[in-house]
Amino acid sequence: MQTPADPQDRHEYPSHWEADVVLRDGGTARIRPITVDDAERLVSFYEQVSDESKYYRFFAPYPRLSAKDVHRFTHHDFVDRVGLAATIGGEFIATVRYDRIGPDGTPASAPADEAEVAFLVQDAHQGRGVASALLEHIAAVARERGIRRFAAEVLPANSKMIKVFTDAGYTQQRSFEDGVVRLEFDLEPTDRSLAVQRAREQRAEARSVRRLLAPGSVAVIGVGRAPGGVGRSVLGNLRDAGFTGRLHAVNQAFPDDLKEIDGVPAHRSVRDIDGPVDLAVVAVPAEHVPEVVTECGEHGVQGLVVLAAGYAESGPDGRERQRALVRQARTYGMRIIGPNAFGIINTADDVRLNASLAPEMPRPGRIGLFAQSGAIGIALLSRLHRRGGGVTGTTGVSTFVSSGNRADVSGNDVLQYWYDDPETDVVLMYLESIGNPRKFTRLARRTGAAKPLVVVQGAGAPPGHAVRATRLPHATVSALLRQAGVIRVDTITELVDAGLLLARQPLPAGPRVAILGNSESLGLLTYDRCLAEGLRPARPLDLTTRATAGDFHRALAQALADESCDAVVVTAIPTIGEGAVGDAELAEALRSAAEEVPGKPVLVVHVELGGLAEALSAAGRTAPTATATVPGTGGGAHPFRPAERLRTAVPAKLPVSHPYSRLIPAYPAAERAVRALAEAVKYGQWRREAADPGKVPEFDDIDERNAARLIGALLERGEGLTIGVEETCRLLGRYGIDVHRALPAPTPDAAVAAARALGYPVALKATAPHLRHRADLGGVRLDLADEEQLRRAYDELSELYGTPEELRPVVQRMAPRGVDTVVRAVIDPAAGAVVSFGLAGAASQLLGDMAHRLVPVTDRDATSLVRSIRTAPLLFGWRGSAPVDTPALEELLLRVSRLVDDHPEVVAVTLEPVVVARQGVSVLGATVRLAPPPVRDDLGPRTLPAY
Fold first, then answer.
1. What is the per-residue DSSP string for 769-819?
2. How confident is the model at residue 693 (pLDDT cuts 50, 70, 90)?
3. Stated pTM of the model
4. Neighbour-count burial for 858-886, b at 16+ CB within 10 Å, e otherwise
5. What share of the chain is helix, strand, coil (3-state, %, to 5)?
6. 143 contacts: CB under 8 Å, gap ≥ 6
7. Which of 62, 118, 676, 857 lies at a CB distance of 3.0 to 4.6 Å from 497, suitable for a disulfide?
8. Do residues 892 and 823 touch, judged by C-beta distance below 8 A?
9. Cis bond upstream, residue 856 (ω within 30)
10. Measuring CA to CA, which residue among 379, 334, 339, 355 is closest to residue 463?
């Protein structure tokens, strides 16, 4: 962190403006404020800029900076004059600054809200998206300092800079005068500017991961001279997988005359390698990693996979060691997988990368696999690889990432890569923690709309992951993830079961299921499980144990052709005796029937049919004839041969459009097949609804700017606080939420005065903690029509429950009769911003009957939220009661969502009770809690996690 030394600087160094960003090509840079200590860096930077770029910046030949220029460009007050620099290796590669101006264009101070902005990017780094990233950050800084509009003057020939401004998506005006293009644009984010920012973020982060997963050259650092050891093992795994790029072994202890090891060129240092190194696998003890990172950075290595342990998982010292590692790597623009990582794999034919501790390359396929824990990664790869004891190996892995402590590259980064990766059809993730939940749910929504995303979320974060625990019940977090398009499962087995179905079968159009097979009891078991999972099964068709392959073929084709069927589950048991159907014959019959009537998923439930599981995979792989044998069995697998004993060769990867790419998954138990199908049905329904997700409505009466000013003023009082009643009403009022005033009544006379001010009829309420929102305890008196009734009620409460000091009575204007409800919003560490709704009282407090939606809530979300609670019929005329104004309730939910979404400082809102009447809603109580905005959220400019 830099510290300014000029006494004229009016503000302390704003360290919260420091940020690491991913650039367009996948490299990283650091953005930070420029200070007086940067004079030499600025001069050195300017000397490396071409004359043409200098001309474009100053509109005249400007070969060098004068001492006055250097002083001006390094002395800032961080309010009216701000400069930011993008740095790599501690040296400037680009700068941007703004100067606040008045209406006449001369320097000004607040309340002037316009500033001139100018950039300069070193020629060697132009085209990397540096200026676009700087614009996002300088705009955020300007908004923080009360600047709402930027002006920029650009020479017409400077097309690159004009494009930076015009492509940013802000509302702008352009004029041309005296040979200069003048651009003016508002800094208020627009839908287009947010879309541009997020599209750039996706491309940059995807490329940063792609550089790790598809390197042209790899160096393994820490390769031992003797067989065994982590480094030597990884080197062997890379070599055995057939890595298509250049491979190097590095160990500073190698003798000078050692030229190669295991057929791989050997070097004492990365610096000795002739040519670029894209990826370094670091397999040295933690204490030696900093030296290795320095060598890699100076050699231009693009990314690191750090296998070493001894970091955040080991305690406070290790956590600081991890922070230092990330800071050091980012200094050189490198990204890190790990530390404490298991490694990465890419099965693409043109890459064949196994930079991991997995001794065998997994079978190529269409599944992207992410796990933080190495142990979980091993379990997932094993489940996908083996042919029995679970789902058949009907497909394999496209890419695999085990991030370890995920100090840098996280699941969000890999999601950005998989989103548009043509080699990946399904994403499976085991997440022990979610570092940026708001971003994860946004990315999950987008990814889920393109390809299935199946997630197991661990119960708690391991020591190496610095995240806070959720305050929401596990079932609630699961429901929220589902709303974002995540297929949420509970175990690794379910993760693989669902993934293998989704990888090669079409999504079902609905919940209607046909069941057919040669076992009546297995069919009935499948039927019962379908009912339990909320599916709509037809009565099973029993083909009897005498069924031939032709019988299976005809029954399956007929079921698939039936318009009342959305999916088919085939049950099969082994048969014995003359004419028994063979595994390969049955597999081909099922495959050919499914191919004749495409568009609906087919699953097989088998009992100890290893041969059938194998044959189903082979049927999709090689399309055997009805007399074909199972590969490796020499003449057909025995119907009782255990599946786990079968071994298969690694099949070639087939494109999705290939006629035999539709592989039929087989399951050893009905409950596993049906559970996977149920998840596919729910996901298919979500995909259809996601095509029209609704919209976040605009409200003309929302005053976002003055709400922000009020929040800023309130936060100056402390780090986090529950604001007072008057401030709560003012803040909510900025968002069109009217809270009924409750006036304190410490004495009977004060109660009467309050009632006169509000107007009769009124309510008298005790607000002591043990009586608040507890009408059942008698601490509330309603419909008090005059002073006499009010005084009598006041005396009754005092006699029953204690002195006014104990009761804390208030007087409130009566609201129309209706249904009492509660509306809440909270920033949850695991789920992000959440809006919750339920009925007030026992329904929500005792029974937990609350429904939740992720922020921002759309109009469709609000409609479904109101109808999601079990007690929703009370709002819609249950047992002859009058229906209440649910559209007004939905509007209230949308306004609360907007408040939380617009202002991350609002960390909790509670409206209770909210009385929903036949016409309108009345908010009778409200609390709001504020806290400084998080260092890292999903609302500001692009940043990597801070270290």
1. TTTTT-GGGT-EEEEE-SHHHHHHHHHHHHHHH--HHHH-EEEEEPPPSEE
2. confident
3. 0.83
4. bbebbbbbbebbebbebbeeeeeeeebbb
5. 35, 20, 40
6. 187, 188
7. 676
8. yes
9. yes
10. 339
